[in-house]
Each structure stands twice: as C-alpha cells, then as structure tokens.
TrEMBL record, chains A, B:
InterPro entries: 2-HAD, HAD-like_sf, HAD-SF_hydro_IA, HAD_sf, S-2-haloacid_dehalogenase
CDD domains: HAD_L2-DEX
Domain of life from the UniProt record: Bacteria
Name of this protein: Haloacid dehalogenase type II
The organism of origin for this protein: Pollutimonas nitritireducens
UniProt key word Cytoplasm: no
GO MF entries: hydrolase activity, acting on acid halide bonds, in C-halide compounds
Length: 237, 237
C-alpha cells in the first residue's frame, strides 16, 4: 500500500451536525425557526445522489458539487414551502458553503497525521477542490493532495472516479486503498482493483442509523476509526 | 489575496542540480561518464517546451508531464549518441522520476510553512500530480492542494492554465497570486487577471544565467525569496 484515499462526507466529516448547525442559524435569522435543522440537513443531502446521477448518466456535463449543492438548496427550501426569491442571495451562498465548514470526527486529524508519515493521503470525494481545501484548512486536515470528482471529472461510484485516480497517482491499483464508511463506495473501488478499508461511522445519519453499521464484504482492512487504521497499517517500532 | 499559486521548476525547486545529480549516477553505472550531467540536464529540459507546445497547439491531446519527460529522455540520450535500446527500461524509468526528487531552494519550506498559516498555497506547475505529490512528500513541502496542468488540463502559459485554476479555487482572480521566477509566467497570469509575485532564482540555469535576473514588469510583489515573500504578505504581529 502506498496511498490511502478517503471518502469525505460521512467518513471524514460529520456533515449532518455541521449542516444542521449552519441551517439553524440561517432559519432563526430568516424567521424559519419551524424547520428542524437535522431534518433539513437530511433533506438537502437526499438531493445529492440524483443531482450527481444527471452528470454520471451524461444528461448533463460534469458540474462541480458547489453548483449542485446550490441548486439543491433552492429545491430543498422550496420543499419546505420557503419562498426562496424573498431571501438574500448572499445569505443563500453563505449557507451553501456550510459544506466547506464541516467538522471532522474526533479521530480524523490524529489518525491522518500519523498515516501521512508513511503514505500518501488524499480525499477521494465527490466534493469539489475548493470545498475540500477550505474544509481541510479550517480543520487542519493534512492532505497531501486534493483528489476526487473535480480532478477525475467523474462522480463516484462511476468506475473512472477510481481508475483515473489510480492512474493520476501513478501506482498499481492494489497499492491505492479506498477508505470509506460506505460499503457501496468500497464495492465500486474493489471492482476497479483498489484495496479497501471500512471504517464504520454509526452516527453519520443520526441516532437512528440503520445502514453501513457493519462491513458487508471481506474488505482488506476493517478499522474502528482512523487512529485504529493507523495502528493497523503503520510499521511497528 | 487568499491564495498563492507557485511555479515549481526553477521557482520552488532547483531542477538543474537535482537532474544532474541523478544523471551523474546513471551515467557512471552505464559507462557514459563522458557526458556532462549539468549539460545533460539542460539538454533534457530544452525539450520540455516543444513537447508541451504539441499539447497547447492541439496537435496532441493533453498528456501528463511524466510521459513527455520519458519521451524526451530517450531523445536527449539519443542526441548524445547513446544507444537507448541497450539500456535497462527500469533504469530509464527510474531516471525519469528524478523530476520527483528535486530539492527545494533553502527558503522554500520555511516560507511556505509561514504562508500556509494565512493563505491557501498550491503548486501551479506544468508538472503532473504524482510528480508534485512525490516531490512534496520527500521534501516536506506543505501544499494545501496540488493544482496545475493535470488539474486544468492545460499547460502554462495557455490562459486556461490560469483561468481554470481561479475558477476551481472559487475566488476572484485578483485574490489569487501567481508566484514565479519567470517573468513570462507572470505576464500570462496577469493577462488572466491574477495578482503576481516575482522571486528571482539567479542560479536556476547555473552560474552563467542571463535571463529572469530582474522583474521586467511592475509585478504586484517582488520578493528576494519565500521567507521575504512571507514577511511582505503576512499580517504584522
């Protein structure tokens, strides 16, 4: 193994709490305090896969996630009966970049800092480059490079999202390990020849989470968190 | 200013000494000790612009620099009368990645480490992503992201090499400062609306260097080295 590439939303950062935090502030400023911010976070996120699917299927050219998120924000607010035309455009833009200000899970920075001593570490996220850079700088996530959809011009789980990343890294595919809290992401990565590591994030979807609590295939690595991942793959002293 | 994007070959790293060092080892192993390694480094580098020009002009699709370097290596050795077919392919591949193992100028890591506290820092190089990542890990260069030709799919000084980078960063073009030891790079960046910083590297081409010893336009910033650049743009305590 030479490189670890990470899913980000859910695996590295807690998007649900972060979006709910910023949405709550927005709703209270705009007299929308009746909307539950956690429900809203999930509702906004629900529009994510269909928006990317339009790009994956070729209905629409590749479009970076900040733009898809902004379109989805308008739809999500509209679904709650909010008259978006009455809202300040700058405030909507600001809420849209809440995705740039998500907090990592508590083990992330320490685990990645250790992994970085021996391996290339990079996000392999559907998030765009600016989103990943701003998130990493705010939270001190020490990536070696920002890879992912905007670099490969392909949204996971399309195969080019994985195969182009491997080619860009100039490594045999087995030397690149996809790390994710989502079995489906690892399944797609394995189909492309990458190694796989599962790290469960049982609170990604809140207290009632029912999916991805356990590995569903025999992934190459199963770790409790990023510190445990580092324990498993770093050379012993 | 929000982001500083750096030319790399010449501005961040001393390619001439690094290539000469690895070429000298290669030549001595293969009985080619008659070739001057510094001359060879310059000869190999001379093929760089024409190879990129084939991509810039559209004669050839965008092709990452590792591949262009490898083709140019065969040509450069052939120009010295070396029978490349007699050489070990793995050894040629290894020499080709000498570009991944170049040393930064002495002020680079300290200056960038300081700049990173307040700004996004990224290479805006014609080098490909793996080349930049491997170079940065070996030399502890603390980039926030790897930008450049493989991300924009355009070789400098083509305008898309600058304009797509600005768009990817999601910033107004004036908030992105191109840093280079080459006036021509800054000229092209300024034409695209970026801010500009000149850092002279009077030994890039060896002791006889005659070009780029001074700024040839009124660049926004002129710094002696990266530490000085940090002094000029960081907030004073």
């Amino acid at each position: 193994m030479k490189a670890f590439c990470f899913d980000v939303f859910g695996t590295v950062v807690d998007w649900r709490s972060g979006i709910a935090r910023e949405a709550a502030g927005f709703f209270s400023r705009y007299g929308l305090a009746g909307i539950d911010p956690y429900e809203f976070a999930a509702a906004w996120r629900t529009l994510y896969q269909p928006a990317m699917e339009a790009c994956r299927s070729g209905k629409r050219p590749f479009t970076r996630l900040d733009i898809l998120h902004r379109e989805n924000l308008v739809v999500a607010l509209g679904n709650y009966g909010v008259d978006v035309a009455q809202l300040d455009t700058n405030a909507l833009d600001q809420l849209n970049t809440a995705w740039h200000r998500l907090d990592p899970w508590p083990d992330v920075v320490s685990g990645l800092t250790r992994l970085k001593q021996h391996y290339i570490i990079a996000p392999a996220s559907n998030g765009n480059i600016a989103l990943m850079v701003n998130m990493a700088k705010r939270a001190h996530v020490p990536w070696d490079a920002i890879l992912g959809a905007e670099v490969t011009q392909a949204y996971k789980p399309s195969p080019p999202a994985y195969t182009r990343m491997v080619e860009i890294l100039g490594l045999p595919s087995k030397d690149v390990c996809m790390v994710a809290a989502h079995n489906s992401d690892l399944h797609a990565a394995r189909e492309c020849g990458l190694s796989t590591a599962f790290v469960a994030r049982p609170k990604e979807h809140g207290p009632q989470q029912a999916s991805d609590l356990e590995p569903t295939e025999d992934w190459d690595i199963v770790a409790r968190d990023f510190d445990h991942l580092a324990d498993l793959v770093l050379p012993k002293n």
